[in-house]
Amino acid sequence: MSDPLLEVRGIDVFYGDFQALFGVLLCVNAGEVVTVIGANGAGKSTLLKSIAGLMPLGRGDILFDGARISAAAAFDVVKRGIALVPEGRRLFPSLTVEENLLIGGQSRRPGPWTLKRVYELFPMLAERRRLPAPALSGGQQQMAAIARALMSNPRLLLCDEISLGLAPIVVRDIYARLPAIVAEGLSLIVVEQDIAQALKAARQVYCLQEGRIALQGQAGELTRESISAAYFGV
Amino acid sequence: MQWGNVIIQGVLIGGLYAMFAAGLSLIFGVMRLVNIAHGDLIVLAAYVALMVRQALGIDPLTSLILVTPIMAAIGYALQRGLLNRTLGDDLLPPLLVTFGLSVIIQNGLLELFTADSRRLQAGAIEIQTFQVAEGLWIGVLPFIQFAVAVIVIAALQSLFYRTPLGRAFRATSDDQAVAQLMGLDTRHVFAMAMALSLAVIAIAGVFLAVRANFDPAIGPARLIFGFEAVIIGGLGNMWGTLAGGIILGVSQAIGAQIDPGWQLLAGHIVFLAILAVRPQGLFPKVSG
Amino acid sequence: MSRVQHATRSSQIGVALIAVALVVLALAPFWAERSTLRLLAEIFTFVALASLWNLLAGYAGLVSVGQQAFVGLGGYFLFALVVLLDVHPVAAIFFAGPVGALVAIPVAALVFRLRGAYFAIGTWVVAEVFRLLASQVSVLGGGSGISLPAGAVIAMAASRQMREFEIYWLALALTVLVLAAMVALLRSRHGLALTAIRDNELAAQSNGIDVWRIKFVVYVLTAFGTTMIGALIFLTKLRISPETAFSVNDWTAFVIFITVIGGIGRIEGPIIGTIVFFVLRQALADLGSFYMLMMGAVAIVVMLWAPKGLWGLIAERFGWQALPLQRHLLLVPKDSGARS
Fold first, then answer.
1. Best of C125, C131, C254 to disrupt the B interface by mutation (most B CBs within 10 Å)?
2. Which residues on B lie below 8 Å from A99 (Cβ)?
């Protein structure tokens, strides 16, 4: 049994005096898709930001590929192979679509994801490559954000609520491309409020409730009742 | 045709003002920092050129090869060591720290070089002119200076919109946190922007030193000219800044022609008038 | 009924101490030497100038590096009234205030179009314009300046000693007035709005505070005070020129350093800062530009590592305040029999 790719070991995270995460434990194995679900404010984004190095840890450790990244700065974490697709897309408004993708490749990690490959996966981006990023629709922006993260050739991709604010058909379209990403050898953590989509995509499920892991298990084995109970804290 | 020559002179010095302004607006664009010590750094560059000249005996324009990297290095160190700590939501720290820096530079130069007026000699080129039309003459040095200003602005535009570094600048200016997610060390990006600004300042400083007498106290006036050029031209547009510099230069030249004591006043009045009537400037870039 | 209590134990002590100090200072002409009187008067004017700048920058968030415009305006206005219209110098000081306020109105209309650091430089430009205009007024000495005519000087008081006493008391009175007005403002409803703006401008605006109007009023009031102090300063100097009247170093750099080191955004800050500044000046008297250099460096260090200044450090450590400005809501308990 090989070591997990990512190990989150009992982290506490604070916003000033407010504690957002309490002793969160999580593991991602190579090639795995893990989903973290939970209600608004449960701490899902905070968890991803902490892994990505945008937030300092109050307590605990994060190991990636065996090495401690708990104190690493965000730009360092990317170079090691973890990429975050941030909540709300957050493309750079002053840059065109293509420039957004190019800057995603700033860290110059070796790997299969080039501009060409990314355009193959998301052809609608290729059609709009010279447009300023804000000109894209919500769904297209989400794809651009994912593509931008892929350009850094990560080994672990963190997706923060990629269905947020998008029509169901668009969400299905986006999720339909995830298998191709996993096939290239990436591992995924998918954070979602939309449980249905998340459960279809992932194998491992974690449920966060007010900063604590309330439930954990294989997607196929958990019942709807237990998930609801954990989600809402009933 | 006397007025023609007056206007030409005004246009040409406008190029120098635009160079003062370019460094200022570059920094504001990337990190929302207004460097109150900007003018004093221009004067510092002039003194660095003076020292290089005294040490190596080369002419001012050639000395740029040394002065520019020296100033750029100072800019990088300044940003990384001091100014990065002032960035954030609060308005006071960058303003007051750069103000303190301005006082330090002025008084430091005063201690090192005294208040004596200096000038960098550039040789015969200083007084050469060429004729463009009946009664219209252009000074060779002012013309070179204007041409360099246009080249510098074109180079900056090109850098901003066509290079990875420029992309990094724009991305970091848009969203610092997400820029870090791209692998950009924002401390380094800001320091590179400041280094670039000081490189432009170096060029402006050398031209200033050749063109006019300088002493440690003239910094603030250069800051004000650069600032006025930016506001007249409109924020966010480098070519607008060139236009702003030209308008300022021409206003000053016309004012000086009417009465020597009115030179600076004329420029300020035009600036205030534009501020009153069209505060966004003449050619503002629509901000995204 | 609940009421707001402003005082704390430390502020009660503070007010008592200040009252004692004021009596001692008012009697200074009877116990102090001439040079001490002069020094004290200078200290008072800087306390006043710094307090006014603090109100502008520390409370209203308007960082001006152009207040020398109003200092010089006050000086030139006084000289104009005395030299051209034969007005009594002391009266001229009190006319200077309203004039400063009037001039500040169109100035504010212009510079308020700029934000943040650009606003700061804009105020500097205005000061430069005033300076250049003053150089053009040949009746008041043009570029080289002018001295106060002997007749006006004598009109102030019979002997030189009385004159110096008069100026001293004027300086003390004006400074006390400025500080008292500030305390009154800060204790009022408008002061609460100002403190809100100081703490978080966006939040203040979302709470319905008309930020622009308050800033405008504060700018005009500050100009009022600064112009009067400027008139007094140049009455003391007996001579004015564009360079000295609109000097950035004298009227802005020192003021900023004083306020930063003492503590921005608290009324006690400028007082502490001025004391520190003058102690240092006495100690390092002859160092000239090196002294300014050091002040700049100290201000930078303070701004980065102790942004609340000396008083900020002390007040936070011990929870003190020297003046009753806190707002503490006293709730009347329900069963106390109070009618509602």
1. C125
2. 167, 170
pLDDT in tens, B123-170: 777 788 888 787 788 888 899 999 999 999 999 999 999 999 999 999
Residue C226 · residue C49 · CB < 8 Å = yes
Of A77, A95, A192, A191, which is closest to residue A144 (Cα–Cα)?
A95
Point out the residue among A74, A93, A134 whose CB comes nearest to the CB of B181.
A74
Residue C77 amino acid letter: F
Q: Are B95 and C110 an interchain contact pair (Cβ–Cβ within 8 Å)?
A: no
Cα–Cα distance measured from residue C42 to residue C48, given in angstroms and rounded to the nearest whole number: 10
- Lookup: tokens for C19: 């009252």
Instruction: Identify the closest residue of chain A to B188 by CA–CA distance.
Output: A75
- Better pLDDT: C213 or C70: C70
Which pair of structure tokens corresponds to residue C154?
A: 């004598």
Rounded CA-CA distance C231/A139 in Å is 66
SS (H, E, C) chain B: CHHHHHHHHHHHHHHHHHHHHHHHHHHHHHHCCCCCCHHHHHHHHHHHHHHHHHHHCCCHHHHHHHHHHHHHHHHHHHHHHCHHHHCCCCCHHHHHHHHHHHHHHHHHHHHHHCCCCECCCCHHHHCCEEEEECCEEEEHHHHHHHHHHHHHHHHHHHHHHHCHHHHHHHHHHHCHHHHHHCCCCHHHHHHHHHHHHHHHHHHHHHHHHHHCCECHHHHHHHHHHHHHHHHHHCCCCHHHHHHHHHHHHHHHHHHHHHCHHHHHHHHHHHHHHHHHHCCCCCCCCCCC
Measured between CB atoms, does A135 come within 8 Å of chain B? Answer: no
> Is B101 near chain C, with CB under 8 Å?
yes
Measured CA to CA in angstroms, residue C256 lies from B103, B209, C68, C178 at distances of 11, 31, 12, 18
Total beta-carbon pairs less than 8 A apart between chain B and chain C: 115
- Could you tell me the end-to-end alpha-carbon distance of chain A, in angstroms, rounded to an integer? 36
Question: Using the beta-carbon criterion (under 8 Å), do C297 and B268 form an inter-chain contact?
Answer: no
C216-264 pLDDT tens trace: 999 999 999 999 999 999 999 999 999 999 999 889 999 999 999 999 8
Q: Which of B165, B182, B186, B286 to mutate to test the interface with A (most CBs of A within 10 A)?
A: B182
Binned at pLDDT 50, 70 and 90, residue C334 comes out as low
**What residues of chain B lie within 8 A of the CB of C116, using their CB?**
34, 91, 95
Beta-bridge partners for C51: none
Over residues C151-158, mean pLDDT: 79
CB–CB contact A84 B173 (8 Å)? no
Residue that the structure tokens 């979302």 belong to: C206
Distances (CA, A) of C55 to B66, C48, C59, C319: 46, 11, 5, 21
ipTM over 0.85: yes
- Report the gap between the CA of C205 and the closest CA in chain B (Å): 17
How many whole angstroms separate alpha carbon A202 and alpha carbon A220?
10
pLDDT at A222 over 60: yes
Query: What angle do the packed helices C254-262 and C269-283 form, to 10 degrees?
Result: 120
Distance from CA of C98 to the nearest CA of B (A): 24
